[in-house]
Design a protein that fits this description.
single chain; 4 helices; about 0% strand; ATP synthesis; membrane
Length: about 160
């Protein structure tokens, strides 16, 4: 037995046992277990937070995608509405132009008719003047004074009957 107490391995073994006993008495395993449990709890909380953030990000992504689809549909509707309004405006402009052309054509035709009537009136007046001049010249050359007076009286009588 004396040999055991002098052996350094024995003392190292005893020191190791004392060390484990002191550690056990101080509560190191409980502290170590508590630290590991706390660490596991922190990791679990971080994982839960990461899951929550991931779900929130997915919800936001879905919301943004939905809003993007709605905006695209609204833009498409606006474009469709604008095309429809442009078509209506184009048709209205065509109608207005056609109406203007019709009015101007009618006005031009009316002016032409007036000009024709005026020209015909002037031609008739000229023809009447020429006929009067020719008749006058003929009558002056061929008729006697009595014949002229008789013609004037007949014409006056004809005018009286027409005016009454």
């Amino acid at each position: 037995m004396g040999y055991l107490f002098s052996d350094p391995t024995f003392w190292a073994f005893i020191g190791l046992i004392v060390f484990f006993v002191v550690i056990a008495l101080v509560g190191a395993p409980k502290m170590l277990t508590k630290m590991l449990d706390d660490r596991a709890e922190n990791i679990r909380k971080e994982l839960d937070e990461a899951r929550r953030l991931r779900e929130e990000a997915q919800e936001r992504l879905a919301t943004y995608e939905r809003r993007q689809r709605e905006a695209a549909a609204e833009a498409e509707q606006i474009v469709k509405q604008a095309k429809h309004e442009a078509d209506l405006l184009r048709e209205d402009a065509k109608k207005q132009i056609a109406e203007r052309i019709e009015r101007r054509t009618a006005m031009a035709e009316q002016r032409i008719a007036q000009a024709e009537a005026q020209a015909a009136k002037e031609v008739r007046a000229m023809a009447a003047d020429l006929a009067v001049e020719a008749a006058s010249a003929l009558l002056q050359n061929k008729l006697t004074k009595t014949q002229k007076n008789a013609l004037v009286k007949d014409d006056i009588a004809g005018l009286k009957s027409r005016l009454n």
